Amino acid sequence: MIEFIQPSDNSPKWERELYDYFTERSNIDIDREHLYHYTSAPGLEGIVKNRAIWMGHARYMNDTSELYYFRELLTDNIRRRMISDKSRDPSEALETMQEACRQQDTNVFFTSLSESGDLLSQWRGYTGGKPGFSIGFPFKRLQTAAGHQNARLAKVCYDEDEAKRVADTLISSWITYFQTMRLGPAGALASELSKAVSSIAPLFKPPGFSEEAEWRIIKFLDLDDLEVRFRSTASTVIPYVHFTISDIVDKFDSRAAQECCNPAHADLMNLIHAPGQETSIETTQALFWRSFRSCPMVESSKLTFKFN
Asked: Domain map of the chain by residue range?
């Protein structure tokens, strides 16, 4: 298991930089009470019954291209250094880093949330082409639950200049580390750097996706960890992890549970029905009540959109 443990002063500089950047993205303040997880009707039923959200393995996401975005920025930076006449970077170090960017041997699991609970692009992308739901989790409780489960809740960065700055800083630190360790391209450093790339890549997406205002809950586990579960499709077996929401919901006191539909309770979960969702509000609340003895505040989308 890879844990989010603060590096010591003796840790390599790049390790401390990675930890500091993760911490920076985790501590961003938002002006909203909730983060929203979009899901289909079957997905909602599974979340409530299992009291958990699925965290998918990065390698098996529907669209893995976004996870290569930061790797491509790293690769471009390395390539420019290799062809520059002014570069004094050792070629062996740059070749090792190129190899690290090609590898993907870290088992990263994550799930996505948005600052917006009623966004058309999210309804289209995460509800299976049918009217679904967005579940609003109280932000502070979500942060606490992530910490209890050795995960990190972090805001995705869409600023390409910042992504390039992070890439350049890490490469410079890695070169220094390489020269200190003096490992060849086939040595352990390539694998070590590959894990670092895989760990930070989910924090970056291209600027064109900025409307999503996405946050991700990120966790690292070896595939033989007992916490990892497996499901099958017609052609493959896919690993995933449960992110338990019991820590979030079970803290509601009895008064809050009795008055769960009272808007005064801003720290409760809320739920938004997608445009065209035919499930009644009473049905949705009953589903939650049976599992949690509490129900979210429920409202319908304010958008006008018709699913096919």
From this structure: 13-300
